[in-house]
Amino acid sequence: MDKKIAFVKDYGAYLRVKNGLIECSVKDQVKWKVSPAEIHSIVFLVTSSVSSEVIRLANEYGIDLVFFHRHEPYAKLIPARYGGSFRLWTRQMRSLRRGVEFARAFIYGKLHNQWVTLRYYEKKYGYDLGTGRLDELTRDSLLATSSEDVMGREAEAAKVYWRGVRFLLPTSLGFKGRRKKVSENLDAFNVALNVGYGMLRKVVWSAVVSVGLNPYVGFLHKFREGRPSLVFDLMEEFRSPFVDRPLIGLAREDSDKVSNLKEVYSLLSRIDEEEVYTQARKLANAVLSGEEYKPFMAK
């Protein structure tokens, strides 16, 4: 059975065991109840309480308890018998030999989704944004033979993609291309992108930890102490559809709104978390089962 994640989202919620089920309630109102056999983790997103009986049952069924503060994980209780998480982490380390396979999938999804973003404007307005070349590079990415090769092809596609984005943006924004460092005297659109990617990173990080993957063991981005490489890997698929495309739309509607970070936060607060969590579960399943990983493909 494909186990699920249970979320505690209501402030002041209390988790207890009743009639063999884990029950979440606020005052006298039951928010949800679930059999411990149906879930692999419980994610606490807000201030709440949990009974020792829930912890005992979690240990018995191999359920991880994950605690977050402002979308960032700060603690995780792993069952003393080292159940699901330990098995998944072990498989994740063994899967490093499949690194190029996962790396190709992440970048294939990223380039396809960039193509979808530009193609939308080509079809709507008859522009030529270079999607033909981007499509070629997307298919070429599947031929890469190493993670470095994958990154090289991604960099080539990035030139085409950001050239297209630049064409779509009002010239008043002064966008010359993708820049990341504050020291580069960033224009408003690059600042908005950095904010958006930061918001996306938190969601992806939450999803990766919640499904039991080790966020620091990546396949595409190299290991570096303290860097959540796997989070950066999985983010690639969502950058264009969840951040770039909404911001391009906002800029074309009213370029001044891109400079207003409240507008940017409000727009990007609607990131589709369910899609991200679903994709993280697919990644965990691919690691566990040895089956092919299929990236998120925007439409």
From TrEMBL:
Residue positions binding Mn(2+): 154, 221, 236
InterPro entries reported for this sequence: Cas1, CRISPR-assoc_Cas1, CRISPR-assoc_Cas1_C, CRISPR-assoc_Cas1_N
Cofactor dependence: Mg(2+); Mn(2+)
Residues forming coiled coils: none
Biological process, per Gene Ontology: defense response to virus; maintenance of CRISPR repeat elements
Gene3D superfamilies the UniProt entry points to: CRISPR-associated endonuclease Cas1, C-terminal domain, CRISPR-associated endonuclease Cas1, N-terminal domain
Signal peptide extent: none
CDD domains tied to this protein: Cas1_I-II-III
EC nos: 3.1.-.-
Task performed by this protein: CRISPR (clustered regularly interspaced short palindromic repeat), is an adaptive immune system that provides protection against mobile genetic elements (viruses, transposable elements and conjugative plasmids). CRISPR clusters contain spacers, sequences complementary to antecedent mobile elements, and target invading nucleic acids. CRISPR clusters are transcribed and processed into CRISPR RNA (crRNA). Acts as a dsDNA endonuclease. Involved in the integration of spacer DNA into the CRISPR cassette.
NCBIfam families: cas1
Family membership noted in the UniProt record: Belongs to the CRISPR-associated endonuclease Cas1 family.
Name of the protein described by the UniProt record: CRISPR-associated endonuclease Cas1
